[in-house]
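User: Could you go from structure to sequence for me? I need the amino acid at each position, not a summary. Structure tokens:
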């Protein structure tokens, strides 16, 4: 394992100690171009954030507020609907929204077609992790809302769109 990769693994496991007890893999290099909300939405071309100064992309007609409700509305606008859990279901793409104990949304993860999860960790790397809770804890809190839509297929742009 190269020194740069090793350094990234050490940082990941310090920040997300639940990763040390499970299989996970780094699937991209670090980049500030997009964040976990964009990644969960299938967009790796821009940062999604409901900041009130319009510095970042946020879907039109969704309030620019840091609330679980606003984040949910952003995904509802992409064809997702609320669901009860993150259990794998053939033909369904799921997204989990995490929140800190104070209720502020902190992270989103997307379930892949094999039942594993993918997360973009801030400006750092994307990872594939087995359990949704592997990235939960001190930094991101816990999953508080689950959404699903029919399985998406890659579009010609490389982004994901409902099939």
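Assistant: Here is the amino acid at each position, in order:
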């Amino acid at each position: 394992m190269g020194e740069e990769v090793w350094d990234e693994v050490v940082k990941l496991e310090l920040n997300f100690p639940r990763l040390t007890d499970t299989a996970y893999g780094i699937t991209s290099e670090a980049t500030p171009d997009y964040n976990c909300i964009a990644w969960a939405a299938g967009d790796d071309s821009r940062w999604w954030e409901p900041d009130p100064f319009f510095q970042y992309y946020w879907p039109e007609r969704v309030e620019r507020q840091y609330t679980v409700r606003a984040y949910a509305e952003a995904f509802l606008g992409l064809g997702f609907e609320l669901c009860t859990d993150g259990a794998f279901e053939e033909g369904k793409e799921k997204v989990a929204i995490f929140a800190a104990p104070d209720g502020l949304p902190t992270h989103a993860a997307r379930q892949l077609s094999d039942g594993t999860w993918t997360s973009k960790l801030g400006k750092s790397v994307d990872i594939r992790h087995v359990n949704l809770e592997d990235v939960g804890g001190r930094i991101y809190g816990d999953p508080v809302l689950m959404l699903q839509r029919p399985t998406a297929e890659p579009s010609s742009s490389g982004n994901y769109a409902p099939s």
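One structural detail worth keeping in mind: The chain has a mean pLDDT of 90.
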